[in-house]
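Model: Ready when you are.
Researcher: Fold this.
Model:
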Amino acid sequence: MSDPDSVANLAKQTAEAYGGIDLLVNNAGIWGDLQFASIFDISPERWDKSFAVNVKGVWLAAIAAAPYMRDRPGAAIINQASTAAYMVTPRTADYTSGKAAVIALTKVMAKSMAEYGIRVNGIAPGGIATEASLNKSANLFAEANIAQQCIKRAGQPSDLIGPLMFLASEASGYMSGQVLVVDGGKTMPA
């Protein structure tokens, strides 16, 4: 996702196969492979790799797909951020900072792509019980963590389907530049 030529080629092939692009969900990211580390122990190489996929990849995919989305009714881009952007986690500074950048980038894209009829929104999942998250931190799904949520259970990948479908559909046709938080009512950003 961080190679401009590869991303541009993917967008072109998709548009040729389907006659255009109506929806882009920027879901690629680095999370499970990142080890918890102090801000002082994150190498420049790790920082660059994390930002290359989690931020640059979102930007590259959007600008590659946008020409094929222009003036298509209902065209939408959905960027995946994270509640990590709202809940500062010192041991994942690169990931947390990158996901905050995705939120800012979502808003910039919404303003920049409005003239082409492309809506841009985001989704910020909290702890979702994916293989990567379960391998990374069982603490995300511990009773003490779940007790901080309004909905007292671990988030499942299926919990993201409804919000994603909403943002992809005309039901959200009057929304752009917004980020939906899906975390069982834990974060509640203002």
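Researcher: Now this one.
Model:
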Amino acid sequence: MRIIGGTAGGRLLKVPKGFDVRPTPDLVRQAIFNSLGARVVGTRVLELFAGTGALSLECLSRGATRAVCVEKSNRHADFLRQNFVKARFGASQLEIRVQDAFSALAQLAAEGQRFDLILADPPYGEKNVGRRSTSFAQQLLDDMHLSSLLVRDGLFVLGHSKRDTLELPEVWHETKNLKHGDTVMRFLQTASRAK
């Protein structure tokens, strides 16, 4: 795995061995950032289920000013720290929160924090024919704090498996949908702000 573009483009990222983490593949990240284009420049970014931090590091490489990464695993957060140092970004550009994503959402909302871009590519849910999804992706969509963390015209990019059929609550409006293999990346804005 590597950072694809920007000032740190080409730098290799350390990834834990085994199946504990599923980093967003290079081709999927490339499609995401081709779609985002210059929108990343100057943004405050929140990455949930950050793992190795590949999405946040890509944002910083492409001109984001700051990233907050939420990762529950201490081990994975250590890889994220190593990748950040290797990419040579400024120390003030990254905050790592080692905690549950949903606890972090409530805390960030209580702190009044706001982000231009929120990224999440959580562990995939199972196929859910004939029943509502219980995946982390669906739980994020349903979380009452998440939409309040976006600035006006902010964007939430959510990854999930194509076999995981999600229900979009009324608060969200989908602006784009990218598919690559088993991965679906949905670009969402809050419905009131998307008009």
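Researcher: Key takeaway?
Model: The chain has a mean pLDDT of 90.
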